[in-house]
Specification:
mainly alpha, 16 helices, globular
Amino acid sequence: MGSEGAVAPGQQARQRGGRGLVRYFLAALLVRGADSGATVGVVLLALNARGHPGGGAAAGGLLAAALSAPHLFGPWLAHRLDRARDGRRLLAAAFVLYAVALACTAVAVGRVPLGVALCTTAVAGCCGPLLTGGLSSRLAALAGRGERPQRRAQGWDAMTYGLGGTLGPAVVAGAAVLTGPRAALLALCLAAAAAAGFTLALPPDRAGARGPAAVPGVREGLTLLVSHPALRRVTLLTLISALELGALPVIATTYGPHLSHHAAAGAVLTTALGLGNLAGSLLVTVVPLRGEPEIWARRLFAVLAGTTVLAACAPGYSLALAGFALVGVANSLSFTSTLASRSAYAPPGARAQIFVTSAGLKVALASVGTAVAGAAAGLGGRALLLMAAGATTLAVLVALADRLATSDGPAAPSATAGRQQAPGAAGAASHPADLRTDGGS
């Protein structure tokens, strides 16, 4: 006999889940904004310190590399996260360490030898994989059971990447003008530290710690990306297309001025790309992807290649702006499909390893794309866009060929992803093969 004011247990659980998602998205937005803005911040700080220890353009490039290169150590950190009794504490500790190390860099540049600043920056870079894929690997346990809430949450997660990637550098650039790059970088440290507080306030993972038998080692976790058919195909799509995504900002700086004869036109194209990303993220939260995520990934990466070709064929600057915005939309949708794929196909004991390893390799391949686009800038923006579209098309064709050559179907119906990932769900698979059922779309 409950009173009128009593709240049903199911409603209480939904309320707790909703509060947990709000805290997750606040943490994700803050920490990913800090991660995205840090690269701009260290470069501006080094340029501002020209003529002092650790200053200059070359030093800025080295500091930016020190932030991105350690992402390749992500699988080892992810293994610890998969094994952790309380993943919130490990994530929060990584966020705080990132903040402290980046603050040390902010204080060191221009005042002490460059080697000291590179070391502190590398420490921050080692935490980077947990700021991206590590945090995303925790989302499935918060989003609730069922396909729709899972996909909607993944859309919001993609939006935190888009917003963080847009607002982080913008805030740093604006704050650097008002207060200087050192203060701007320290503000990012405060954002990362605040994200740690929101992370600790997340609901605990009721799955608890997993023993060595339930969590594959680092080598086995890396092998899953190759041996598991669906994960292999989604990883191929992610990595090969990352070449295009890394190249696009560089291409914009060449393509925009060529079409409009204004030096700032490239920055406007990059802004259109970012706004398209945000629009795509919003779209997929309102209308979540339904059905098999691997199939969606192939389709959406094909759309990404197609929109890139359209942008390359734009006869004028206005149509190029529209083309870059469409590329941003397609990129956001395809990225969301990869998040859904990793959630659906990664075994529970290796979820963090799958997310973090994929994210780290994507950062590395995007850096290659950036370098290649810079070295080939003389070819012109139109040719570079077509080359970028070719890389993404190649990814789709390779994934399709792999699918046709592989006799097995998709590894897990996406409709069951939420049930497999929900904390405490009975019968969660511990091996990729266990994720395969008979309801694929």
